[in-house]
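Reply to dn_fold:

You asked what the input looked like. This is it:
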Amino acid sequence: MRRNPDVDIMRVQDVGLIEADDPTVLAWAAQNRRVVLTHDVATMTNFAYERMQAGLEMPGLFEVSRRVPVGLAIEELLLIAECSLEGEWEGQVRFLPLR
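and this is what came back:
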């Protein structure tokens, strides 16, 4: 992110997963200890909960509705990145903005 270059964000396009289904993206994220940020409020949550029920790692999922203003989403992400501890979001599904 330009406002905080220390925030490490990767897009599915960057790692060759642009055509991958949700379970594959979540498996990659778990293997690489990456929290997932998505606009996919229709299916990604269900797959995240399925991973957790199966006892699989799920390092965290943040869902951002497309109706959330971009500026607000960026502010929330910066706050989360700056104030979170390693592994703090493990096994959690959260919706932005946090309230």
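The first strand starts at residue 36 and ends at 38.
Hope that clears it up.
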